[in-house]
Amino acid sequence: MSYFVLLILFLLLSGAVFAKPFYELAPKEIDKVLSDVRLKYQTFEDRALAVACLRLETPYFIVPSEKLRPPLFQTNTADDTFVLATLTLAEATFYSKQAFYNEAKIKYYKIPLKRPPLCYFENVTQFTYYRLHSINESYLCKDITANLLAPEQLKDAKIHGQFREKSFYIPCNKVNAGLLKKLSKKIYGVWFVREKAVSSEIVISHEGFIAEGKYLIHASSIEKKVVKADFLKYIEDNSDYFDGIIVSELHCKN
Description:
alpha+beta, eight-stranded antiparallel sheet, putative xylanase like fold, 17% strand, 8 strands
């Protein structure tokens, strides 16, 4: 039985399923779901996968930068911070008391110690890869790309200016079933590199999760919602657009 079927059965048995999808739940209802997920799944990896699955079908929407105002943490929509929001939910027991502040602590670099930060565009740490891997020693991801292929098969991701160690990506033509077999965990973060459309050192054009070594869960700007797709087919279909991928293990900072 697949993990996704088991997840649905768990939610039905726990009473955490409401008469509406996750993205329509009120804060107190989300608290109930997160509490049940934490009780059922002991590892951060399992909770992250559970929450990612719960967020399937969430509408895709990006707020224009000039209209960004607090609160920015949304569960009723998903955008190019899908990974960050999902991991923050997986880490929290309560949405209203923990998830918003935890995301803000990662996402914004000028924050007070005892109250939520001012969440404005000019205060944001740009790009989820940076936030999740290095900001405020509160990272939730560890880049493992360099461990997956021989050095001569990798390419410079050109984002090492933000880190102590050089970063690499795997070219699309090297992403195959053999590579996915090396991913033994149930879920990984994946970052899509597009060198041809960037300036400076910003090369991350999309993000999502590799689930069960074969699926991509991501907020699709094409389908306008969070979807689950065949990962290798997605790479094949988009190999002319993306140059390659970066893969990260997930960690809970608490």
